[in-house]
Amino acid sequence: MTWNAAGGDPASARVLELRQYTLRPGQREVLIELFERELIEPQEAVGMQVLGQFRDLDRPDRFVWLRGFSDMEARRRGLFAFYGGPVWAAWGPAANATMIDSDDVLLLRPSGPTSGLRPNVHPRPFPGASSDPTVLHATILAVDPIKASTLAGRLSRVLEAALAEAGHRLVGRYETDPTPNNFPRLPVRTDTAFVWFTSFAKADRTGPITLGGYDIPAVAKELGQFGTLSWSHLRLVATSRSTLTGKAAPVRTS
User: Fold this and answer.
1) What angle is formed at CA 100 by the lines to CA 99 and CA 103, rounded to 5 degrees?
2) pLDDT of 63-85, one tens digit each?
3) Which of 10, 43, 178, 202 is 20 to 30 A from 16, alpha carbon to alpha carbon?
4) Could you tell me the pTM of the whole model?
5) Burial label, 127 (beta-carbon count in 10 A; 0-12, 13-18, 19+)
6) Across the chain, how many H-helices and E-strands are there?
7) What angle do CA 61, 205, 131 make, to 5 degrees?
8) Is residue 254 one of the residues assigned to a domain?
């Protein structure tokens, strides 16, 4: 099964890019308008899926988006076709001009057969549609690659229990895909990471995020005893044309 612009099963995306761009001051809205007007459908036309585009609620110069592929070979073909094609030639320089850094990219795979993200809006909204104000959360823990296999289960149990206690529901669970990057023109991070995507039952968008009575730094510190090297937590608000929002369907448990 492969991705297509008309839909397809999003859970079939066995490869996911989590892309975090640091932009020049005041350029986020410029990039979002360009991205949503010119760059979504051409990517999907060559077999890729643009799952979601987001404003980072806590970092005003950060744009975050998710791109999916059915497998690594589909990724290679799609990226080669898009970045070597006329659309990127026409609009790539303007997009790049908004950016300071575009290399914070995690290449991920679902941690289990039913843990992939599933967008909640089809078909994709038209330009200018109202944005969904709900928040999608992404918690990222980077660990020592040598310890990753033994830590995965323990990290999941500790963090997911804390998230559930705090009112979050799990909507996707991912880990670094160890397959070598087959499109070196676009760098990816070389550390090993686990990523939990969650939604939050409460409507508050701006209050502090707590997990089981702890704030996130405290939880991260606790996880540090298991070998965690670094962590980050993203609060993401979807742009108007994102097919994934904070109302994403939870992962299947059976």
Assistant:
1) 90
2) 999 999 999 999 999 999 999 99
3) 202
4) 0.86
5) exposed
6) 6, 10
7) 70
8) no
